[in-house]
Amino acid sequence: MAEFLDLESQDGVRMPWNVIPGTKQDAQNAVVPISAVYTPIKHFPSMPVLNYSPLRCRTCRSVLNPFCIVDFAAKIWICPFCFQRNHFPPHYSSISDDSLPAELFPQYTTVEYNSDAAVGPTYNNPSVPPVFLFVVDTCVIEEEIGFLRSALAQAVELLPENSLVGLITFGTFVHVHELGFGAVPKTYVFKGSKDLTKDQLLEQMSFFAKKPRPAVGVVAGARDGLSPESISRFLVPASECEFTINSVLEELQKDPWAVPADQRAARCTSTALSIAAGLLGACVPGSAARIMAFIGGPATEGPAPIVSKQLSEPIRSHKDLDKDSVPHYHKCVKFYDGLSKQLVHQGHVLDLFACALDQVGIAELKTAVERTGGLVVLAESFGHSVFKDSLKRIFQSGDYDLGLSSNGIFEINCSKDLKVQGIIGPCASLEKKGPLCSDVTIGQGGTSAWKMCGLDKSTSLCLFFDVVRKETPDATIQSTSNQFYFQFLTYYQNNGGQMRLRVTTLSRRWVAGPESIQLLVGWKA
Questions:
Q1: What is the SS3 assignment for 145?
Q2: 116 inside domain
Q3: What is the DSSP letter of 63?
Q4: DSSP string for 146-186
Q5: Is residue 200 part of a domain?
Q6: pLDDT surpasses 60 at 117
Q7: CATH number of the domain where residue 14 is located
Q8: Where is the Sec23/Sec24 beta-sandwich domain (predicted)?
């Protein structure tokens, strides 16, 4: 067990097998699958951060690593994945046995590149600061409103000064608050039972009052159709809007619409989240933005109600889900599945703070939270210490912060005798198909790249692999070629706004023949 922990502390990777069955049949005979649990941005005090671009193989695009074969005289390195011979660029001209770059040191199997050039070609380099959009449920009792008001005011004080802040409140109707003009409070009100398209939202919120709408193309941020002045009406720097947002929070009241004694409150959670996603998608696509939803009960209004307004209809239970006796469930899951795809495309995160004695519909909402790498906090009340301490922890800085990062892309490369079956974890497939993809799919499969909208220092992914080598190599070949390799690439924007690329390269060995399972069991023990 000590060896497993040592390997994990070096690279943030734990594998159930540190030697792998050498053939497909042997792998099928092993009960525990060939897999790895990887923590992409785990903190390593001794990990080098390199302020230059990574050197990539021209065939498979893997990054230079300690397992590459280097010819110092010819200034050539051989990729361990595809065996392509690559020339070193001119700035590596001084490389020698005694003068190695950090990425070739044997102990540096995990390195991080801090450079704009480290960003991959499919990666959208954001130019805006982090964005926090608060979506607040007002269909709760006055006491809960008071707790929420206090917690949100404290959260605003803890926000980074350069971050942008927005506020949406909802009950029977959805209120989008214009914080950019603090002298006169102004809100845009939308009917909770109606689902709006992005174009309708932009039109009704007067985004094109001063600047005409582009005739063609997609409206997405200041570079593609929106004026910075229109965006700054709803997303304001935290250092400039503290007084305005605190004024709005002080006047925050319970939803004024009367609720009959035999009915639940008209809570339009799905409409509010849809408007929040549409607003961020139009204003700051590809940025480090988080929708932070504070919910105090089940949705009863809008395109995805969890339960009807009538109290005579009980909210679905686990038994109802098992029996598929759930009239609203499938419609809700379909809606939030679509919302999760929208958020993943935009690169935004959904965090959920559900504080109520009743159910709030996490089963329906979980897809959108899981695929975007969001956080879920459950408590009985907004005054409970679990909620208050968790909210503080999100904005905490220093040695014990969560290390919240965003806009991640995770890619994998491995030796030709292995294929990737898929990943289980907070990510979404980027549909990058290729020779590395296995026909067998587990979790998010059929791809070798995944989007991670939100991740932190403890976020982990479980990867599953398929051994495709069918015949057992003879003893002579096996003794010289029993090594195989993985390389994990994680592009992300850290909580300081810097673009990073972390590269972890691993080597393990094959074991083949009739005694392979016994050897595996012995190694595991």
A1: helix
A2: no
A3: B
A4: HHHHHHHHHHHHHS-TT-EEEEEEESSEEEEEE-S-TTS-E
A5: yes
A6: no
A7: 2.60.40.1670
A8: 406-511
